[in-house]
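COMPLEX REQUEST
Ligand: phosphoenolpyruvate
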Amino acid sequence: MILILTPNVDEQSEAYRQLLAHLATLQGIQTRIHAERGTEQRLTEIYLIGNTKALEIGDMQSLPCVERVVRISEEYRILGRHKDEQRDTHFEYNGVRFGQDTLHVFAGLCAVDNREHVEIMMKAVADQGQVCTRMGAYKPRTSPYAFQGHGKNCLPYVFELAGKYGIKVIAMEITHESHLNEIRETLEQTGNPTGVMLQIGTRNTQNFELLKIVGRQTEMPILLKRGFGITLDESLNAAEYLASEGNRKVIFGLRGMKTNMGDPHRNFVDFAHVPVVKRLTRMPVCIDPSHSVGTRAAAPDGIPDVMHVTAQGVLAGANMVLVDFHPAPPKALVDGPQAMLLKELPYFLEDVQIAREAYLRRVALRQKQNF
Ligand code: PEP
Ligand code: MN
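STATUS: Structure written out below.
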């Protein structure tokens, strides 16, 4: 059960103290307080954990400072979408709004290779009026002998160039807690020219200790990729690890499932789960067509498979597209075969726009029906 308190509740007030004192008397119930500071107000929620079935909604609603009470299902307590749910489904980061109703494209480098390519990529993104990109500095690789990413050495120029081209959010995977500090320190040293969305990759979806550490910081949002060989429920619970540690700015990423049934694609595309994740949780949903498909191959209609599946995801209501581009794919150090060409970026974005408009028309059509 969640008690949603009146906005800007005063924690020093007598009423608040009375509320906590009352909750402490409830047998077998533990409390967990979560405060979220928005631009306009501070929202406090108290989670009641334990045998809450015995508690009456009306009784809890009449307690001091309580505005609303939500009875939650056992699963996905914080990020889940519960019965009669009215809580927000969006957050803002560095001036960019992310929600189940928005759409952002993060076109960029799977792996940073050199400064020149980063600059060409960011300029191309900015020229299209985009403020988000992807830049991989820490790469989890199958082989220990493969390029592992430039790590912290590339961060200063990646962040400076992002500032130069007005990039507001960079999606960047981290694979170890030390990367978190390296990113934080470099952002500070470079004067915070941009923002970073921390990405947890599919190989770390159930790295619970990493999830806890990343979830404990609340300044940067998190993109959690679905685990490639576990159930959707297991991956959604992984997202809940982040939220239960304090960070609710979580975006859930679909990136395909590892199985030969998806051949000749790199993974089996799972974008049919876009509406499922939006129904079960309040998280915005990202699709990664590049790691799903893994090739630049095109259908007889001339449209690359990467773009066909992107359209499928966007048509189903996806809120973010994470997609690999590269100025010279044959020279890319990681995942060159799936990177789209820079000259294709305006075409890609226009195609996404077509799918987005079709999605919005589908929503409007549904709203006109009275059943
Ligand atoms: C990536 O986005 O670069 C990546 C490695 O993705 P995934 O974790 O989905 O394989
Ligand atoms: Mn990759």
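REMARKS: The chain has two domains: 2-71, 92-368. The chain is about 35% helix and 20% strand.
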